[in-house]
Amino acid sequence: MKNSKIILVTGGTGYIGSWVTKSLLEKGYTVRLTVRDKSKTTKYKHLLDIAKSTEGSLEFWEADLLTENAFDKPAEGCSAIIHMASPFTLRFNDAQKELIDPALNGTRNVLNAATKSASVKKVVLTSSVAAVHGDNIDMKELGISEFTEEHFNYSSSVTHQPYSYSKVLAEKEAWKITKNQNQWKLVVINPSFVMGPSLTKTSNSESLNFMKEMLSGKYFLGAPNLMFGFVDVRDVAKAHILALENDLAEGRHILAERTVSVYQFSKIIKKIYGNKYKLPLMRTPKFILYLVGWMFKLTPKFIRRNVGYNISLNASKSKEKLGLTYTPLEKTIKDMIKQIEEK
Ligand code: NDP
Question: What would the pLDDT profile of 90-147 be if each residue is shown by its tens digit?
């Protein structure tokens, strides 16, 4: 059924964003998508194709995260904003310019646009568990047995885990801006490492790079004992829709189906696909990682503070308050590899 509401979506062309946009279109919303360059149609052709078979409709507006006031016009007349745009890459030259400035200034520009547009009543922000914790050792340093929505990453900086730093700065800024107005409500989604099939062929998200590298044999000689939370991209999209539509939704929401190490992740693939791929032969001992870590862009500080440390992410709020149910990681992996194979 057609929905009369207009939702402004940033980052809707991306890996997560494409699934969120698809869900909104299927629910009949008018999705006002901001893109950096409208002439790059390959970035959003898949969304136009999806829109054809849904009740919803798509609009494209140009706006860059780094341009002040760029989101003011697009926000006019929208009932809500889903702000997902932010660079998710570990391949950068200048962390300040390429990660932190777009994340932080982008959040400022988008949320200030929300306040300037009288019609906006809700903002859903895609943060990350990277804004909840930095290094895996943080859990031990804090003397806690799990990370919850109460925690904020304190250990990242512009020189150490700058992507995580960009996310915690952006989320804190969002909460600061939220406090200074009472027109709209902020709901934050904090996904762990997102996996699953992709609707876009142009995203450079590290999620997609990680799986491609795993299957291509990058970790053949060994994978680190490095723990991450994992969550299915389709569940992340659902969480955004639930956050948007549920009037009672508030605060932050950690999303994780489970936490496993990179090595354990490869074992799940092996269980399904046997020896089809050049998967890790073993768990790389930490002392070896210090020698070869540079090949994987892992600094000695990162290895020291992350490898071999357990983490636990409490995702119960996402289940109890948003009503989210999680796809098992085995299915997520299977669907993702199936899609890669079909390509
Ligand atoms: P993608 O790289 O696929 O998507 C990033 C999106 O941000 C793209 O639409 C991109 O647009 C847009 N973007 C980047 N820089 C700018 C800019 N300067 N101006 C306007 N738009 C810009 O990554 P993901 O889908 O994986 O990530 C989406 C969000 O989810 C990010 O906020 C990320 O931090 C967060 N996240 C991701 C996780 C994951 O595991 N993937 C985990 C937790 C959080 P364009 O198409 O023009 O490049």
Answer: 888 999 999 999 999 999 999 999 999 999 999 999 999 999 999 999 999 999 999 9
How far is 110 from 129, CA to CA, in rounded Å?
21
Domain map (residue ranges) of the chain: 6-342
- Yes or no: say if 316 and 150 are a contact pair by the CB < 8 Å rule: no
What residues does 223 pair with on adjacent strands?
283
Looking at the DSSP assignment, which residues form a beta bridge with residue 225? none
State pTM to two decimals: 0.97
- Ligand 1, atom 13: closest residue by C-alpha: 85
**What is the Cβ-side half-sphere exposure of residue 37, based on CA atoms within 13 angstroms?**
5
User: How high is the pLDDT of residue 127?
Assistant: 98
Q: How far is the CA of 119 from the centre of ligand 1 (A)?
A: 25
| Listed range (136-140, 265-269, 289-293, 335-339) with the worst mean pLDDT | 289-293
Query: Among 60, 332, 15, 331, which Cα is nearest to 202's?
Result: 15
Q: What's the CA-to-centroid distance between 84 and ligand 1, angstroms?
A: 6
Residues with a catalytic annotation lie at 167
Q: Are 131 and 88 in contact (CB under 8 A)?
A: no
CATH fold, domain 6-342, is Rossmann fold (3.40.50)
Contacting residues for 79 by C-beta, under 8 A, at least 6 apart:
5, 6, 7, 119, 120, 121, 122
Q: What is the dihedral of CA 23, 165, 90, 141, to 10 degrees?
A: -110
For residues 75 and 8, give the distance between their C-alpha atoms in angstroms, rounded to a whole number.
6
pLDDT confidence bin for 2, thresholds 50/70/90: confident
Ligand 1 pocket test, pick from 66, 84, 163, 207 with the greatest ligand atom count within 8 Å of Cβ, gives 84
What is d(CA 31, CA 18) in angstroms, rounded to the nearest whole number?
11
Cα–Cα dist 159/282, whole Å: 30
Length of the chain: 343
SS3 101: helix
